[in-house]
Amino acid sequence: MFARLALAALGLSASAGAWAGLPTFCERAQDITAEEQDRVLRFAGVVKQELERSGARAALIARAGTDLSRFGLLYSHAGIALKDNPGSPWAVRQLYYACDESRPRLFDQGVPGFALGADAPLRGHMSLLFLPDEEERLLEQAALDKPLALALLAGKYSANAYAYGTRYQNCNQWVAELLASAWGRLDGQQAPREQAQAWLREQGYAAGPVKIPSHLLMFAGQFVPLVHLNDHPVEDIHALALHVSVPASIEAFVRRQAPQTRRVEVCHDEQRIVVRRSGEPLDAACTPMPGDEVTAIAP
């Protein structure tokens, strides 16, 4: 109860602690109308078309799931879309928190389900990173290597997990560690997470920092389920800057490591779907610019 009161005092919803795109209150249900569902599914269809027309076999995919605008973030949840995913073509391999088991799991989810996981069906954003051939091959191989993917999975979940600790993990941290294992050609046999994090440090990976707007918000976060501070350095807590893996951190790292990476972004509001292939970011309002592909959504 205190958690909800503290969050209410800050103007936050019960899901505000979901730093990595997953609800922190497992009982939270999302109401969505048939019209909203149809809009999101049409949006997902455009995203899947972009994947299919890319000629790629794997892509890094991120969605704007939970509203993280107060932290200056649009995207919250990342995974790997795989053309030859055993579940279905272009299903997204990702970490999710299994509420009924109280532990993180790996999950393959089709693009429509991935899109429907966002909090706000009135507006949605997805970004796609298409990698150069060798980086793509290594990532695809690692993502489809089930023993490796599972070896990188932590036993405990924290939505704001410290990027250089192994006590917890969030969905984006699993993606970052899988990238490290793939591109660093790590064997994953001994302490795979420690190996991956060491490689990320050596390559200059910068997780966040996520800027917390106030000490009050930092304090309230301690009472939100699946949000923890006991893995973060004390100096980061005092500085209101937590080193957490978020999609923006992963994208910046990928584009520095593989400058030929191609970025496509797709968004929708209640009137239109916008596709931008120039690599320039779309704004949160899904405002089209010259050169974007715009499809009207009939009322």
Output the structural class: alpha+beta
> What's the order of the H and E elements?
HHEEEEHEHHHHEHHEHEEE
Determine the N-to-C terminus distance: 41 Å
Strand composition percent: 15-25%
Describe the largest sheet.
Answer: 8 strands, antiparallel
Count of separate DSSP helical elements: 10
Domain module tally? 1
- Uncertain stretches of 5 or more adjacent residues: 1-25
Shape assignment: globular
Rg, alpha carbons:
18 Å
Average pLDDT score: 87
Number of strands: 10
Could you walk me through the main structural features you see in this protein, from its secondary elements to its overall organization?
- With 299 residues, the chain is α+β, with helices and mostly antiparallel strands.
- It has one domain (2-296).
- The chain is built from 10 helices and 10 strands.
- Strands 4-3-2-1-5-8-9-10 form an 8-stranded antiparallel beta sheet. The chain has a two-stranded antiparallel sheet with strand order 6-7.
- A hairpin with a 3-residue loop joins strand 8 (262-268) and strand 9.
- Helix 4 packs across helix 6 and helix 6 (171-183) packs across helix 7.
